[in-house]
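Allow me, if you will, to draw on your knowledge of protein folds for a short while. I have a record of one protein: its chain in single-letter code and its fold written as discrete structure tokens. I should value your view on which stretches of the chain appear to form regular backbone elements. Thank you for your consideration; the sequence and its tokens are set out here:
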Amino acid sequence: MLVLSPNVPLVDPLIPGTNANSPLIGWHNVLAPSMLSADEEDPNHPVVNLANPATFLRWQGESTAAQEILATVGLVDEVDYVGFANHNFGSSQISVEIEGSSDGVDYSSLVGPVMLGTDGPALFRFEPGAYSHIRIKLGSGTAIPFCSTMYIGKLLVVPRKMYVGHTPLPYGRVTQVANGRSESGHFLGRIITGEYRQSSALFDFLEPDWYREYFEPFVKAAQERPFFFAWRPGDYPEEVGFAWLTDDIRPVNSLPNGMMRVALDMQGIA
């Protein structure tokens, strides 16, 4: 799910063609384990796990009370998003608000508070800024909060929009099942033993300079790390995925003027 601050500039004057439906890729991440602290953390699920992209690990609180997570990121890079993967904020009715500060003393609200509709991957997008501290405020809920992975960074806004031929990650279901059948052929039941999401995205007519400056750093990072992906965020803000590449990205020239075509084959968490 994508949550937008009302102050976000959806049209980038430096990149013609960008608007609310320009695809978003959340790969850039300044977060490190040493930057994190929390009001509460279960001893078996410490807050440092949030800086690990492995979603089988997680941070977990110790109660259902309202609490805060603090990331002391320093004034290193301009950031405009916080991403969460594998959390229970939606189903446990936990409100989420992102605050920022340049000195660790005075904080201002960047986006939220909001109640997420699902437990799917979530992107909170706000006005770009150099913040030394990012604070996540979680409201009291019906269950102890947990989250596996958190990113803080600068979104990659792709100038070419997607229209047809794409399966949104939340709907790209791939399941492994065990079927039960009697000797006479009757259906006895079905058990899902595994599940993930799978999709691909094709971007065409990318400016050659833009590709080399902005997209190629993502390609290099995605060889090892997963990323958040929103294919058409304006029309379908709930269709955000947290995915990893299943094949190398190999761009090709699509026109004589050097414009590039590139495909992303990916799998994501269910």
Summary: The mean pLDDT is 93. The chain has two domains: 29-154, 169-268. The two ends are 14 Å apart (CA to CA). The longest helix spans residues 208-222.
